Automatic annotation (TrEMBL):
Organism, as annotated: Aquaticitalea lipolytica
UniProt function note: The RecF protein is involved in DNA metabolism; it is required for DNA replication and normal SOS inducibility. RecF binds preferentially to single-stranded, linear DNA. It also seems to bind ATP.
Gene of this entry: recF
Name of protein: DNA replication and repair protein RecF
Cell membrane found in the keyword field: no
One Pfam family per UniProt: SMC_N
Amino acid sequence: MNLNTLSLINYKNFDSQTFEFDSKINCFVGANGVGKTNVLDAIYHLSFGKSYFNPIATQNIKHDEDFFVVDGVFEKEDRTEKIVVSLKKGQKKLIKRNGKPYEKFSDHIGFIPLVMISPADRDLIIEGSETRRKFIDSVISQSDKNYLNNLINYNKVLSQRNALLKYFALNNTFNAQTLQVYNEQLQTYGTEIFNTRHVFLETFIPIFKQRYDAISNNKEDVSLSYKSDLFDNDLNTLLKENINKDKALQYTSVGIHKDDLNFEIDTFPIKKFGSQGQQKSFLVALKLAQFDFIKQQSGVPPILLLDDIFDKLDENRVAQIIELVDNKHFGQLFISDTHADRTENVVKQTHQSYKIFKL
Ligand SMILES: Nc1ncnc2c1ncn2[C@@H]1O[C@H](COP(=O)(O)OP(=O)(O)OP(=O)(O)O)[C@@H](O)[C@H]1O
């Protein structure tokens, strides 16, 4: 699967621009702030219908304009697929495939498999557990529609249960039966989500370790493990056990919405004890494992976006990453870098066709 053409109108710092891409490697080079990351984010929009960096959709419209259009022409299994994402201020965002708007954006997820590796991934290490759950969810959702539906349903019931707990507290009342209806629904959706995450991580963790060992040349031992309340008991029992706590807090304190991943290096948390280069290697390994997993599930290599990934990595690690890219396992690649020479040297070594865009 390839992105052949990308056209932007009023997207962030671009007013009107069209790119014709190489089917293998495309590099965007230029000084800080010229828009290299913005082009990658536009490509991300075509896969996920939203920005990787800015959750406020209207802030992706060029300043002083009132709409943006991101238009991509892909080649997928010998067919041409035109994806257009557009947003006008005051209106709902539109995602169209070959001219036909999607009613539910979730139907588009997975159609253009894509993985972004960016310095912003550091949030996965430094931020709270929600960021790591979102990561797991986005990896699984790209190949499992049922999972995405369970997640949507779980979150709906969870907010209803939380609203009910608030209502009880405000009105000084309690009704165990109504609460039980929600508990049972959470149990149904939550158990499926837990099982899917568990099975997914059993496949994913060994892939991740392999990737890390290759990047670091087996220099350090890293581990990734799954933390969930549901390892202790079934969700219905846990909800019942924690009812007094939930009444006091006025929200649901146990469930798969509290799941987390532990990231460790040589048995210590990587957040506190990993160097910047080790943390970056960890994140790159995590994302390359995401790439491998999606490829395994969908049979096609996802588009890979590498935003500024060479900084902070020593030459050996950069060489390792490029060696990984330098084989048939990968599909189309987009790279952004401030150092034009470094990028050109690196991509030349891969002996693949490439295009360099100087922004
Ligand atoms: N909505 C917007 N309207 C106009 N310009 C915007 C908008 N959002 C971001 N920008 C501009 O985009 C530029 C940043 O672009 P981008 O992050 O792609 O830079 P970059 O080339 O990747 O730089 P670096 O090398 O520093 O990572 C900034 O100049 C910023 O002001």
